Amino acid sequence: MVRRGKAEASGAGVCAFLPFRGVHGFRRSGAGETQIWHPKVLDLYLFSFDARLHVQLAFIVGQTYAMWPWFKAIGVALYIALPIPMAMVYRGHLMREREKA
Predict the structure, then answer these.
(1) DSSP 42
(2) In terms of Cα–Cα distance, which of 53, 72, 73 is closest to 64?
(3) Is the dihedral of CA 98, 99, 100, 101 positive or negative?
(4) How far is CA 35 from the centre of its chain?
(5) Cα 19 to Cα 13: distance, rounded to the nearest angstrom
(6) pTM for this predicted structure
(7) 27-63 burial by CB neighbour count: b if 16+ within 10 A, else e?
(8) How far apart are CA 63 and CA 48, in angstroms?
(9) Which of 40, 65, 68, 85 could hold 72 in an S-S bridge, CB 3.0 to 4.6 Å?
(10) What is residue 55's three-state secondary structure?
(11) What DSSP element (H or E) covers 1?
(12) Of the ranges 17-21, 72-76, 82-86, which one carries the lowest mean pLDDT score?
């Protein structure tokens, strides 16, 4: 019985692995085609915005994270907790829209 369970589990693992591997292979070839089809990207716009500021804010924030570990911990906590208020606002919106319907 134990061996049969392991075989079924490994078979399920292989069945789950194959589609993900196929999608990953397609994604690599699709990324190059998407870049050709949509050449306009935001990188140049963001670079010009950063250049207009005459200050590299990302570099300064990175130095601050390196200098003060507590600041980094606060930033990571806020980054991890950010989806919670977003989900609450979305839930409130859905509840409000449901009442109108």
Answers:
(1) S
(2) 72
(3) positive
(4) 19
(5) 11
(6) 0.43
(7) eeeeeeeeeeeeeeeeeeeeeeeeeeeeeeeeeeeee
(8) 22
(9) 65
(10) coil
(11) none
(12) 17-21
